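DM from R.C. (forwarded with permission)

"hey, sorry to bug you on a friday — could you get me a structure for this? deadline for the figure draft is monday and I only need the backbone to look sensible"
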Amino acid sequence: MQRFAFFVDGSNLYGSLRTMNLEIANYGQLYAHIYREAVKVWHEVTLQTVPPVAQLRRVYWYAVGSVDDWDLGAPQSRSALRSAFVRDAEIRALWMTRVSVANPTMPEEELEEAAWNACASDFREWYGQKVRAIDGMRRFYAGVRASSDLIDIREAGHWKVNFLHRWVEEKGLDTALAVDMVALQDNYDVAVVVSGDADAIPSIRHLKERGKHIGAVEFVGGSSTDTRGRAFSSRLKIHADFVLRIHEQDLLHLDHRNKNLNG
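My reply, with the result:
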Protein backbone atom coordinates (compact mmCIF):
# COMPACT_ATOMS: atom_id res chain seq x y z
CA MET A 1 0.00 0.00 0.00
CA GLN A 2 1.22 3.47 -0.91
CA ARG A 3 0.61 5.94 1.89
CA PHE A 4 -0.01 9.55 0.85
CA ALA A 5 0.37 12.62 3.06
CA PHE A 6 -0.32 16.26 2.18
CA PHE A 7 1.77 19.15 3.45
CA VAL A 8 -0.13 22.37 2.85
CA ASP A 9 1.08 25.94 3.24
CA GLY A 10 -2.22 27.55 4.14
CA SER A 11 -1.15 31.00 2.96
CA ASN A 12 -0.11 29.62 -0.42
CA LEU A 13 -3.39 27.72 -0.77
CA TYR A 14 -5.41 30.80 0.21
CA GLY A 15 -3.50 33.00 -2.24
CA SER A 16 -3.97 30.58 -5.14
CA LEU A 17 -7.70 30.20 -4.51
CA ARG A 18 -8.14 33.94 -4.04
CA THR A 19 -6.34 34.68 -7.31
CA MET A 20 -8.83 32.39 -9.03
CA ASN A 21 -11.70 34.08 -7.12
CA LEU A 22 -12.69 30.75 -5.59
CA GLU A 23 -14.26 30.12 -2.20
CA ILE A 24 -14.25 26.53 -1.00
CA ALA A 25 -17.25 25.42 1.03
CA ASN A 26 -15.96 21.95 1.90
CA TYR A 27 -12.22 21.48 2.31
CA GLY A 28 -12.58 17.79 3.03
CA GLN A 29 -14.04 17.43 -0.45
CA LEU A 30 -11.27 19.62 -1.92
CA TYR A 31 -8.53 17.42 -0.47
CA ALA A 32 -10.37 14.27 -1.55
CA HIS A 33 -10.30 15.62 -5.12
CA ILE A 34 -6.60 16.50 -4.92
CA TYR A 35 -5.88 13.05 -3.47
CA ARG A 36 -7.65 11.24 -6.30
CA GLU A 37 -5.76 13.30 -8.87
CA ALA A 38 -2.47 12.75 -7.03
CA VAL A 39 -2.87 8.97 -7.05
CA LYS A 40 -3.67 9.04 -10.76
CA VAL A 41 -0.67 11.19 -11.69
CA TRP A 42 1.69 9.25 -9.40
CA HIS A 43 0.50 6.01 -11.02
CA GLU A 44 1.32 7.36 -14.49
CA VAL A 45 4.68 8.88 -13.57
CA THR A 46 5.96 5.77 -11.79
CA LEU A 47 4.96 3.51 -14.70
CA GLN A 48 2.73 1.26 -12.62
CA THR A 49 1.00 -1.50 -14.57
CA VAL A 50 -1.80 -2.19 -12.12
CA PRO A 51 -4.00 0.25 -10.21
CA PRO A 52 -2.24 1.22 -6.98
CA VAL A 53 -3.51 0.39 -3.54
CA ALA A 54 -3.28 3.76 -1.83
CA GLN A 55 -4.37 5.50 1.32
CA LEU A 56 -4.50 9.14 2.35
CA ARG A 57 -2.95 9.11 5.81
CA ARG A 58 -3.17 12.76 6.80
CA VAL A 59 -3.45 16.36 5.56
CA TYR A 60 -1.01 18.54 7.49
CA TRP A 61 -2.31 22.07 6.99
CA TYR A 62 0.02 24.83 8.24
CA ALA A 63 -1.63 28.07 9.26
CA VAL A 64 -0.89 31.42 10.86
CA GLY A 65 -2.07 31.26 14.46
CA SER A 66 -0.68 34.34 16.18
CA VAL A 67 0.32 37.97 15.73
CA ASP A 68 2.69 40.22 17.68
CA ASP A 69 1.01 41.08 20.96
CA TRP A 70 1.07 44.84 21.46
CA ASP A 71 -0.81 46.89 24.04
CA LEU A 72 -1.02 50.14 22.12
CA GLY A 73 -2.41 51.92 25.14
CA ALA A 74 0.65 51.17 27.28
CA PRO A 75 3.14 54.03 27.75
CA GLN A 76 6.08 51.76 26.80
CA SER A 77 4.43 50.81 23.52
CA ARG A 78 3.56 54.38 22.62
CA SER A 79 7.05 55.55 23.49
CA ALA A 80 8.69 52.88 21.33
CA LEU A 81 6.41 53.62 18.40
CA ARG A 82 6.84 57.39 18.79
CA SER A 83 10.62 56.97 18.65
CA ALA A 84 10.32 54.84 15.52
CA PHE A 85 8.03 57.45 13.98
CA VAL A 86 10.55 60.24 14.59
CA ARG A 87 13.41 58.18 13.15
CA ASP A 88 11.55 57.25 9.97
CA ALA A 89 11.80 60.44 7.91
CA GLU A 90 9.58 59.12 5.11
CA ILE A 91 6.67 58.12 7.36
CA ARG A 92 7.02 61.29 9.46
CA ALA A 93 6.91 63.51 6.35
CA LEU A 94 3.92 61.58 4.97
CA TRP A 95 1.80 62.12 8.07
CA MET A 96 2.87 65.72 8.51
CA THR A 97 1.82 66.39 4.93
CA ARG A 98 -1.55 64.74 5.47
CA VAL A 99 -2.21 66.73 8.63
CA SER A 100 -1.06 70.03 7.11
CA VAL A 101 -3.33 69.55 4.08
CA ALA A 102 -6.31 68.93 6.35
CA ASN A 103 -5.28 71.75 8.73
CA PRO A 104 -3.48 74.40 6.65
CA THR A 105 -3.51 77.01 9.45
CA MET A 106 -2.01 74.73 12.12
CA PRO A 107 1.11 76.23 13.72
CA GLU A 108 4.39 74.50 12.86
CA GLU A 109 5.13 73.65 16.48
CA GLU A 110 1.88 71.66 16.73
CA LEU A 111 2.21 69.89 13.40
CA GLU A 112 4.48 67.01 14.43
CA GLU A 113 2.41 66.14 17.51
CA ALA A 114 -0.78 66.13 15.43
CA ALA A 115 0.94 64.01 12.77
CA TRP A 116 2.04 61.49 15.38
CA ASN A 117 -1.45 61.29 16.90
CA ALA A 118 -2.99 60.71 13.47
CA CYS A 119 -0.40 58.05 12.70
CA ALA A 120 -0.95 56.33 16.07
CA SER A 121 -4.71 56.28 15.52
CA ASP A 122 -4.15 54.68 12.14
CA PHE A 123 -1.86 52.12 13.80
CA ARG A 124 -4.53 51.13 16.29
CA GLU A 125 -7.23 50.66 13.65
CA TRP A 126 -4.96 48.65 11.35
CA TYR A 127 -3.62 46.47 14.18
CA GLY A 128 -7.14 45.79 15.41
CA GLN A 129 -8.02 44.52 11.94
CA LYS A 130 -5.08 42.10 12.03
CA VAL A 131 -6.00 40.78 15.47
CA ARG A 132 -9.59 40.25 14.32
CA ALA A 133 -8.32 38.49 11.20
CA ILE A 134 -6.37 36.01 13.35
CA ASP A 135 -9.45 35.40 15.49
CA GLY A 136 -11.51 34.79 12.35
CA MET A 137 -8.94 32.32 11.02
CA ARG A 138 -8.99 30.40 14.29
CA ARG A 139 -12.77 30.07 14.10
CA PHE A 140 -12.50 28.96 10.47
CA TYR A 141 -9.90 26.31 11.29
CA ALA A 142 -12.00 25.07 14.19
CA GLY A 143 -14.78 24.41 11.69
CA VAL A 144 -12.37 22.63 9.34
CA ARG A 145 -11.16 20.38 12.17
CA ALA A 146 -14.74 19.45 12.96
CA SER A 147 -15.44 18.56 9.32
CA SER A 148 -12.71 15.94 8.80
CA ASP A 149 -10.61 13.72 11.04
CA LEU A 150 -7.91 13.53 8.35
CA ILE A 151 -7.11 17.26 8.40
CA ASP A 152 -4.53 18.28 10.99
CA ILE A 153 -4.38 22.08 11.36
CA ARG A 154 -1.00 23.20 12.66
CA GLU A 155 -0.95 26.84 13.73
CA ALA A 156 2.80 27.19 13.22
CA GLY A 157 2.85 30.60 11.55
CA HIS A 158 3.21 33.99 13.23
CA TRP A 159 2.65 37.52 11.92
CA LYS A 160 5.46 39.91 12.80
CA VAL A 161 4.06 43.44 12.68
CA ASN A 162 5.60 46.51 11.10
CA PHE A 163 3.37 49.27 12.37
CA LEU A 164 4.92 52.22 10.57
CA HIS A 165 4.57 50.68 7.12
CA ARG A 166 1.42 48.69 7.95
CA TRP A 167 2.46 45.22 6.86
CA VAL A 168 2.97 41.84 8.46
CA GLU A 169 5.75 39.38 7.78
CA GLU A 170 4.89 35.71 8.08
CA LYS A 171 7.33 33.74 10.22
CA GLY A 172 7.73 30.08 11.07
CA LEU A 173 5.13 28.47 8.83
CA ASP A 174 7.37 27.37 5.95
CA THR A 175 10.08 26.18 8.31
CA ALA A 176 7.61 24.07 10.31
CA LEU A 177 6.29 22.47 7.13
CA ALA A 178 9.80 21.61 5.89
CA VAL A 179 10.87 20.19 9.25
CA ASP A 180 7.72 18.08 9.63
CA MET A 181 8.14 16.57 6.17
CA VAL A 182 11.35 14.98 7.45
CA ALA A 183 10.19 14.29 11.00
CA LEU A 184 7.05 12.46 9.79
CA GLN A 185 8.68 10.56 6.93
CA ASP A 186 7.94 7.16 8.49
CA ASN A 187 4.21 7.91 8.17
CA TYR A 188 4.06 8.15 4.37
CA ASP A 189 5.52 6.99 1.07
CA VAL A 190 4.34 9.87 -1.13
CA ALA A 191 4.26 13.50 0.00
CA VAL A 192 2.08 15.98 -1.89
CA VAL A 193 3.20 19.55 -1.19
CA VAL A 194 1.10 22.69 -1.57
CA SER A 195 3.61 25.49 -1.16
CA GLY A 196 5.37 28.15 -3.16
CA ASP A 197 8.27 28.60 -0.79
CA ALA A 198 11.80 27.37 -1.39
CA ASP A 199 12.35 26.49 2.29
CA ALA A 200 11.09 22.96 1.65
CA ILE A 201 13.60 22.22 -1.14
CA PRO A 202 16.33 20.80 1.16
CA SER A 203 13.73 18.58 2.82
CA ILE A 204 12.50 17.38 -0.56
CA ARG A 205 16.04 16.45 -1.61
CA HIS A 206 16.59 14.61 1.67
CA LEU A 207 13.36 12.66 1.29
CA LYS A 208 13.97 11.73 -2.34
CA GLU A 209 17.36 10.32 -1.37
CA ARG A 210 15.50 8.04 1.03
CA GLY A 211 13.11 6.72 -1.59
CA LYS A 212 10.12 8.97 -0.97
CA HIS A 213 8.15 10.31 -3.90
CA ILE A 214 7.28 14.03 -3.86
CA GLY A 215 4.45 15.69 -5.73
CA ALA A 216 3.99 19.46 -6.08
CA VAL A 217 0.55 20.99 -6.58
CA GLU A 218 0.11 23.64 -9.26
CA PHE A 219 -3.19 25.52 -9.45
CA VAL A 220 -4.19 26.42 -12.99
CA GLY A 221 -6.82 28.86 -14.23
CA GLY A 222 -9.43 27.60 -16.68
CA SER A 223 -10.04 23.94 -17.41
CA SER A 224 -7.91 20.94 -18.31
CA THR A 225 -8.82 21.45 -21.99
CA ASP A 226 -7.43 25.00 -22.07
CA THR A 227 -4.01 25.34 -23.64
CA ARG A 228 -3.21 28.68 -22.04
CA GLY A 229 -4.57 28.37 -18.55
CA ARG A 230 -2.74 30.65 -16.16
CA ALA A 231 -0.68 28.66 -13.66
CA PHE A 232 -0.30 29.78 -10.05
CA SER A 233 2.94 27.91 -9.84
CA SER A 234 5.00 26.44 -7.07
CA ARG A 235 8.75 26.97 -7.16
CA LEU A 236 9.02 23.44 -5.81
CA LYS A 237 7.81 21.76 -8.97
CA ILE A 238 11.27 21.49 -10.58
CA HIS A 239 12.42 19.50 -7.53
CA ALA A 240 9.38 17.21 -7.33
CA ASP A 241 8.94 13.78 -8.89
CA PHE A 242 5.61 14.79 -10.36
CA VAL A 243 3.48 17.90 -10.71
CA LEU A 244 -0.21 17.76 -9.98
CA ARG A 245 -2.21 20.36 -11.91
CA ILE A 246 -5.48 21.33 -10.23
CA HIS A 247 -7.75 23.28 -12.56
CA GLU A 248 -10.04 26.12 -11.64
CA GLN A 249 -12.98 24.70 -13.57
CA ASP A 250 -12.76 21.36 -11.78
CA LEU A 251 -12.87 23.13 -8.41
CA LEU A 252 -15.89 25.15 -9.53
CA HIS A 253 -17.68 21.93 -10.49
CA LEU A 254 -16.64 20.36 -7.20
CA ASP A 255 -18.05 23.28 -5.20
CA HIS A 256 -21.22 23.30 -7.30
CA ARG A 257 -21.83 19.59 -6.64
CA ASN A 258 -21.29 20.13 -2.94
CA LYS A 259 -23.83 22.98 -2.82
CA ASN A 260 -26.39 20.86 -4.67
CA LEU A 261 -25.94 18.01 -2.21
CA ASN A 262 -26.32 20.34 0.76
CA GLY A 263 -29.09 22.41 -0.81
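R.C.: lifesaver. The chain has a mean pLDDT of 89.
me: no worries. The longest helix spans residues 108-147.
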